[in-house]
Design a protein that fits this description.
By secondary structure, the protein is an alpha/beta fold. The protein folds into three domains: 3-99, NIF3 (NGG1p interacting factor 3)-like (Udp-n-acetylmuramoylalanyl-d-glutamate--2,6- Diaminopimelate Ligase, Chain: A, domain 1, 3-Layer(aba) Sandwich); 107-127 and 241-334, NIF3 (NGG1p interacting factor 3)-like (Udp-n-acetylmuramoylalanyl-d-glutamate--2,6- Diaminopimelate Ligase, Chain: A, domain 1, 3-Layer(aba) Sandwich), CATH 3.40.1390; 129-236, Alpha-Beta Plaits. It is 29% helix and 28% strand. The protein has a six-stranded mixed β-sheet. Helix 3 (81-88) links the parallel strand 3 (60-63) and strand 4 (92-95).
């Protein structure tokens, strides 16, 4: 087994393409071809965790938070101390961060499970991404069979290689107008006057990588000198992918019971609580890490309680004014319980891999 095999397993669990645009996930330090028999899991790669990895002889650390956030002009003990130390120790570092936050079964689902949220849940803020495109062309009805055949042969007509359907399209009849100049050579009608001719509008779906080829194919099969082809970008919103989670509890509980459940799940003895006192919690929202800004999404979703890592002062005031109760457990405290789930998933994916959670990893802040 090599580091690349562990990286592949992590990317299946939390595809890097799902990470936020400002984030930096993936293999950030190290050689993917190096042999790898063990991995150490932590939230933050610190000097104590690095020492733990050295002592254990592990070649790879999965640090939830990236050790490199922004592009570096130099790697020195002053500019990038932890990355420098990892390089010196010949230690590879992989980060999942926001890719794992939004993933089904990721950090937010783990927290939701621990607090008793039911399976009927959804992201607080669904992740939207560029999807396929819709191609629209206007042509004489007689051209349609040749245009369809050319477009489908070029890869249009389906959402991609994993789609169960192909050669999808729709057409409707209408009237097209044009005025051809003296240089025009219209396939129908005459130049030098305004023409109105019967046409069909045909549209199909096309994966982005096949878009240019499909447009060339359509133009080649079209009888018009200058065919009208529209490209409409589409947006995908995978139903279970996104920041935070909201859903009904499996059974409504008293607020005191819920607060005890939060403390136990996150391993804390104290919570920061904002908003009105409630007797019962029926609908719960969670947002790991610095997701305090999602409190408005929790309000809009009708949550009774929102559990997150951090909350800004004025957001706490706004949440309270809106009637939402918010419990803050600390940034990494809201994320650390997911390491056990990651350990289990990596063991299942790679049975020969020795997976351990760091004992030195801890939240940098403590309430004393």
């Amino acid at each position: 087994m090599r580091i690349a095999d562990v990286v592949a397993a992590l990317e299946r669990i939390a595809p890097p393409a799902w990470a936020e645009s400002w984030d930096n996930v993936g293999l950030l330090v190290g050689d993917p071809t190096r042999p790898c028999r063990s991995v150490l899991l932590c939230i933050d790669l610190t000097e104590p965790v690095l020492g733990e990895a050295r002592s254990a002889g592990t070649p790879l650390v999965m640090a939830y938070h990236p050790v490199i956030f922004k592009p570096l002009a130099r790697i020195t003990p002053q500019a990038a101390p932890i990355a420098w130390a990892a390089l010196r120790a010949d230690l590879a570092v992989y980060s999942v961060h926001t890719a794992y936050d939004v993933a089904p079964g990721g950090a937010n689902d783990v927290l939701a499970d621990a607090l008793g949220m039911g399976d009927d849940r959804r992201p607080l803020r669904p992740r939207c991404e560029e999807g396929a495109c819709k191609l629209v062309v206007f042509a004489p009805a007689a051209d349609l069979p040749a245009i369809q055949a050319a477009a489908f042969a070029a890869g249009a007509g389906s959402f991609g290689p994993t789609s169960a359907y192909g050669e999808c399209g729709f057409h409707a009849s209408g009237t097209g107008t044009f005025f051809g100049s003296d240089a025009a050579r219209p396939a129908v009608g005459r130049k030098g006057r305004r023409e109105a001719v019967p046409e069909v509008r045909w549209e199909t779906i096309c994966p982005r990588p096949r878009l240019a080829a499909a447009m060339r194919a359509i133009a080649g099969a079209h009888s018009y000198e200058e065919p009208a082809i529209d490209v409409l970008p589409l947006i995908d919103a995978p139903p279970a992918v996104g920041l935070g989670r909201v859903g009904a509890l499996r059974r409504p509980v008293a607020m005191g019971t819920m607060l005890g459940r939060i403390r136990k799940a996150c391993g804390v003895s104290r919570l920061l609580l904002a908003g009105p006192p409630r007797r019962t919690v029926a609908t719960l929202a969670v947002g790991c890490g610095s997701c305090g800004g999602l409190f408005r999404d929790a309000l809009a979703a009708g949550a009774d309680l929102y559990v997150t890592g951090e909350l800004r002062h004025h957001d706490a005031l706004a949440a309270a004014a809106g009637g939402l109760t918010v419990a803050c457990v600390g940034h990494s405290n809201s994320e650390r319980l997911t390491l056990a789930a990651m350990e289990r998933r990596l063991r299942e994916a790679l049975p020969g891999l020795d997976v351990a959670r760091s004992r030195a990893d801890a939240d940098p802040l403590a309430i004393v």
